[in-house]
Design goal:
2 domains; three-stranded antiparallel β-sheet; 14 strands; single chain; nine-stranded mixed β-sheet
Length: 383
């Protein structure tokens, strides 16, 4: 149970009631305010150049949020990206198969309807817009997934449910259930409590970078929707009140709090000017690896590639492809190399892989651990 309101003057003192269906006009206003009032410097990964390679390859596809058709684009159009957990029924949904919006998996359907209601005509979904049967295409695109999320007008993060079958609570097709709020009195103080629910999205390895590199995020929690950018957050329970700071840093924990490390790094890289050098410090990198390695991957061999954007951002010239390829062999940025060597297994986490497995990175790499790691050198002295 988490505190969502009280009769005091603290951060939980007032909370607007949450309707079964979110107010689309409110969501539009959030996006408009962010677009017109907040400066978002260009991504230090030289986003335009990298997305250009995807466009020239002819593999940037998106779902038309009106017709449901999956179409290929040769120029960058405004689109929404969906970050979600595939779940166990993914094999029932072939990629590149166009259908009416209503016939997509519920989370994809709801994301398309939500994007359309915010006047954004296109939706990018990895499962549907990447040819999952073409290994050459997948191999090419995987290093650019972070750039696709960075190029999106908005990323919708499904933080409710354990698969695409759950839908997005608060949308027209998936109304939220009535909140079960418990009132508790402690002397003169009265508190409102709401049951919290785990977010499977926050347990998945790939979604870490999806959150870090997205310029704007709309979190869909069971309890409410929260809009976040590098400048701060809007939330349904406080309507048009804007709270500055990294997403989650000033939120009450009401079952609607994102991973703080990913949110803080997101705020840092999207507030950094392109000519300011490396955006991440040793401490940032260490904290990111510690958070990221607590998450699971269906294919453990993806451990480095699913973290490629942060590895590249931490070391090497973003405009050069050679440093990136070299870094992805082990995941240790040159200027943090010695710090990264101090990794240790987090004993409280069970090993994900048997000890006799074939290593896909050198044994000295943190990515070889097969479990959550921590660092003896936490990077504080290096900035």
């Amino acid at each position: 149970m988490n505190v969502i309101g009280s009769n005091s003057t603290g951060p939980n003192a007032e909370r607007a009631p949450i309707p079964p269906i979110a107010d689309v006009n409110l969501l539009r206003q959030w996006l408009y305010d962010c677009s017109t009032k907040h400066l978002h410097p260009q991504d230090p990964l030289d986003q335009n150049s990298r997305i250009g390679k995807v466009l020239r390859r002819g593999v940037l596809r998106a779902i038309n949020t009106t017709t449901g058709q999956i179409e290929t684009h040769d120029s960058l159009v405004p689109f929404v990206a969906l970050s979600y957990v595939w779940g166990q029924t993914v094999h029932l949904t072939p990629s590149l198969e166009s259908k009416t919006i209503a016939d997509y998996a519920p989370s994809i359907r709801d994301a398309a309807e939500l994007a359309g209601s915010m006047n954004i005509a296109w939706l990018w979904v990895d499962r549907m817009c990447i040819n999952q049967s073409d290994e050459t295409e997948k191999t090419f695109l995987i290093p650019y997934i972070k750039d696709i999320f960075a190029a999106a007008q908005l990323t919708i993060i499904s933080a409710a449910g354990d698969g695409a079958h759950n839908g997005l609570p608060g949308t027209k097709s998936t109304p939220r259930e009535k909140e079960s709020i418990v009132e508790v009195t402690n002397g003169p103080e009265r508190f409102s409590l709401l049951s919290s629910q785990p977010s499977f999205n926050a347990l998945r390895g790939w979604t870490f970078e999806e959150q870090v590199f997205s310029s704007r995020v709309l979190y869909i929690f069971p309890t409410e929707m929260i809009f976040s950018c590098c400048k701060g957050t809007f939330r349904e329970s406080s309507r048009l009140h804007f709270s500055s700071g990294a997403a989650g840093s000033g939120w009450g924990d009401n079952g609607a709090t994102p991973p703080i490390v990913a949110a803080e790094i997101n705020a840092k890289i999207h507030s950094t000017l392109p000519d300011s050098g490396h955006a991440l410090s040793a401490r940032d990198f260490v904290r990111a690896v510690e958070e990221y390695t607590s998450r699971s991957l269906t294919v453990e061999e993806d451990r480095v590639i699913a973290f490629a954007g942060l590895i590249t951002l931490s070391g090497g010239n973003p405009g050069s492809q050679f440093p990136e390829r070299a870094l992805l062999k082990h995941g240790h940025p040159p200027q943090f190399f010695e710090t990264a060597l101090t990794w240790q297994h987090e004993e409280s986490f069970q090993k994900r892989q048997p000890r006799n497995r074939k290593l896909f990175v050198p044994s000295w790499s943190w990515a070889s651990a097969g479990t959550k790691v921590y660092f003896l050198d936490n990077g504080e002295e290096n900035g």
